[in-house]
Design a protein that fits this description.
The protein is an all-alpha fold. The protein has five helices and no strands.
């Protein structure tokens, strides 16, 4: 235990006395500069518009509907125009039932 105290006292003396006596002051200056930079960076970021993910999802889905209304194109209409050969869900289900029940 005495060895630890001697090493600790020697370490404190090295940092505070002698040619490197300003090491602690430099270290405190670096900590201060880093804190100043961090606080400045966080002050530039905007606050989130939503308190949780559920509210964000609701607003996102509403925006999708608004975009569709503004462009007068529905999502299913856009898909059917982009890929006209896609069958509808009802056609897929009917075809699946026919294949299963045709044994």
């Amino acid at each position: 235990m005495v060895e630890y105290i001697v090493v600790l006292v020697f370490g404190v003396m090295v940092m505070t006395v002698g040619p490197g006596g300003d090491v602690l002051l430099d270290f405190l200056g670096v900590l201060n500069d880093n804190y100043q930079g961090y606080s400045y960076a966080t002050s530039l970021s905007t606050l989130p518009d939503h308190d949780n993910l559920a509210l964000y999802a609701v607003d996102t889905l509403d925006m999708e509907g608004e975009i569709a209304n503004l462009s007068n194109i529905s999502i299913t209409g856009a898909l059917s125009e982009a890929v006209p050969g896609l069958p509808t869900a009802e056609e897929v289900i009917a075809e699946g039932l026919e294949n299963v029940l045709s044994f």
